[in-house]
């Protein structure tokens, strides 16, 4: 049965891109309370179906595919730069293809300004109108206003004209940072990237029997299946271990594990892998926010995804990537040795290596040492670090990881870090192994 919340989300998805949405109107159209409408609109905003702008309202925007996630809508630009929409509100749903900084003569500027672009410029009225006529939106920096004729033209063409109190350099930096963050998001593997979709998923109904399990198992050879009720909501999971030695007419309802661990489409693959290790499970059902089955992921799916992710080029560099780029591996009397240079991006407010960068360094050093054992992928379970001395910017650090204990599922490692041949830190880390 579809809930009121789901009906509202479906209704919002059916609205034309560019439509304005209000809590009161949704409540009236769908015959629900304003509280229910508000919660559904917030959920739609989380799903990037709508964007809310101060003094404008909530706009239905185009839901972006993952491969185009680095593109921002004009509505998102307004929020990023704390802007005010002066005109052209009807075009806030449009997508930005590029931005142009107006720091040249108008004729030269117009060469780079075309449909889908955003011209960032100061208080130059003639340029504002020329950009709008070329099909571009306009972002006026310095908090300046636009002329009434420009606002009217923006409304007619449905091209936003936005004013921000920040200067041109700051605005360009903020937009560039937002695009950069989107590129990083694009590279993060989510469950939706590896899930076995519902149409290809084998599952059992709650009123099924052991005979039904055996029949499904003979067709698919899978070791376990989600169990759903008549509304397709996940109520349990049943595995081969649960049905061994049981009568064929025995009900699955009595044998299954109730309230199984589930993930959503937006859960990261790394998080799913950690939960599988921690809970000792091989199959994770994927559900929506209401518990309806959407697919499954197996331990093997997760392992393959993690291995593939390490081979992919990163378009947007995170702190982890910056740390890994500085690492140099070598061998010293059979020990794995990691040499590392502290760059300015990796320091705290005192100019010493930050805790986050140092933690990443240790984890990467441990992962490199584990590769020599030819074991599977690993995830950190716990970590204890003791600092003796701060490590200053542009100093060399040498980390020596040593395996203390190695079992089938757990590895305990000891770390010593040196700078200028002086011991600056010691650490103990326990890794969980994710194996086939």
From TrEMBL:
<feature type="domain" description="CBS">
    <location>
        <begin position="256"/>
        <end position="318"/>
    </location>
</feature>
<dbReference type="InterPro" id="IPR028979">
    <property type="entry name" value="Ser_kin/Pase_Hpr-like_N_sf"/>
</dbReference>
<dbReference type="InterPro" id="IPR051257">
    <property type="entry name" value="Diverse_CBS-Domain"/>
</dbReference>
<dbReference type="Pfam" id="PF03061">
    <property type="entry name" value="4HBT"/>
</dbReference>
<dbReference type="InterPro" id="IPR029069">
    <property type="entry name" value="HotDog_dom_sf"/>
</dbReference>
<dbReference type="InterPro" id="IPR006683">
    <property type="entry name" value="Thioestr_dom"/>
</dbReference>
<dbReference type="InterPro" id="IPR036388">
    <property type="entry name" value="WH-like_DNA-bd_sf"/>
</dbReference>
<dbReference type="InterPro" id="IPR046342">
    <property type="entry name" value="CBS_dom_sf"/>
</dbReference>
<dbReference type="InterPro" id="IPR010766">
    <property type="entry name" value="DRTGG"/>
</dbReference>
<keyword id="KW-0129">CBS domain</keyword>
<dbReference type="InterPro" id="IPR000644">
    <property type="entry name" value="CBS_dom"/>
</dbReference>
<feature type="domain" description="CBS">
    <location>
        <begin position="197"/>
        <end position="254"/>
    </location>
</feature>
<protein>
    <recommendedName>
        <fullName>CBS domain-containing protein</fullName>
    </recommendedName>
</protein>
<dbReference type="Pfam" id="PF00571">
    <property type="entry name" value="CBS"/>
</dbReference>
<dbReference type="Pfam" id="PF07085">
    <property type="entry name" value="DRTGG"/>
</dbReference>
């Amino acid at each position: 049965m579809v809930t009121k919340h789901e009906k509202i989300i479906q209704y919002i998805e059916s609205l034309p891109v560019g439509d304005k949405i209000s809590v009161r109107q949704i409540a009236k159209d769908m015959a629900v309370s304003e509280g229910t409408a508000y919660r559904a609109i917030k959920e739609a905003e989380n799903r990037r179906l709508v964007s809310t702008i101060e003094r404008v309202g909530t706009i239905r925007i185009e839901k972006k595919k993952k491969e185009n996630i680095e593109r921002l809508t004009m509505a998102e630009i307004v929020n990023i730069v704390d802007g005010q929409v002066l005109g052209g509100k009807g075009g806030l749903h449009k997508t930005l293809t590029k931005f142009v900084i107006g720091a040249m003569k108008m004729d030269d500027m117009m060469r780079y300004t075309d449909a889908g672009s955003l011209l960032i410029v100061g208080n130059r009225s003639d340029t504002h109108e020329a950009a709008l006529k070329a099909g571009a939106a306009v972002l006026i920096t310095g908090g300046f206003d636009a002329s009434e004729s420009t606002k009217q033209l923006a409304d007619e063409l449905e091209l936003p004209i936005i004013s921000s109190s920040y200067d041109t350099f700051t605005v360009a930096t903020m937009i560039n940072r937002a695009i950069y963050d989107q590129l990083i998001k694009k590279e993060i593997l989510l469950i939706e990237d590896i899930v076995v979709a519902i149409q290809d998923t084998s599952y059992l109904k709650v009123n099924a029997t052991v005979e039904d399990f055996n029949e499904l198992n003979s067709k698919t050879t899978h070791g376990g299946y989600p169990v759903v009720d008549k509304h397709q909501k996940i109520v349990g999971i049943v595995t081969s271990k649960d049905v061994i030695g049981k009568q064929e007419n025995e009900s699955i309802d009595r044998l299954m594990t109730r309230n199984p661990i589930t993930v959503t489409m937006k859960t990261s693959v790394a998080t799913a892998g950690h939960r599988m290790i921690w809970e000792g499970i091989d199959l994770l059902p994927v559900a929506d926010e209401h518990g309806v089955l959407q697919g499954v992921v197996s331990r093997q799916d997760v392992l393959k995804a993690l291995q593939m992710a390490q081979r992919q080029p990163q378009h947007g560099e995170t702190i982890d990537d910056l740390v890994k780029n500085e690492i140099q591996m070598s061998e010293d009397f059979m020990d794995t040795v990691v040499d590392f240079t502290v760059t300015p991006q990796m320091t705290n407010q005192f100019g010493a290596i930050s805790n986050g960068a140092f933690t990443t360094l240790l984890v990467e050093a441990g992962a490199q040492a584990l590769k020599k054992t030819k074991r599977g992928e690993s995830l950190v379970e716990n970590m204890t670090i003791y600092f003796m001395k701060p490590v200053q910017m542009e100093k060399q650090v040498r980390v020596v990881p040593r395996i203390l204990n190695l079992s089938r599922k757990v590895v305990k490692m000891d770390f010593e870090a040196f700078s200028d041949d002086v011991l600056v830190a010691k650490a103990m880390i326990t890794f969980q192994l994710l194996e086939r």
